[in-house]
C-alpha cells in the first residue's frame, strides 16, 4: 500500500497487518464457529476471562476471543 497512504496511515496499516494475522476468509469462517460464539465469560468480581486466567493458549476462551478480533495467538 506504500505510495497511497501518508506515513501515519502506512504505519497504522503495517501495525494492523502484524496484529491481525488471520486471512479474511479464515476470520469469517472462524466467526461462524460455536467456539467463537461461546467466549467472553468473566466470573463475578474478576476482570479477566476464564480462558486467559488458565494459562493455556490453544482451545481456550481467551484464544477464541482473540480470534474473534482477527488475531490467532497459536500460529
UniProtKB/TrEMBL annotation:
It comes from the Bacteria. Residues 35-56 are annotated as: Disordered. InterPro entries: DUF3140. This is DUF3140 domain-containing protein.
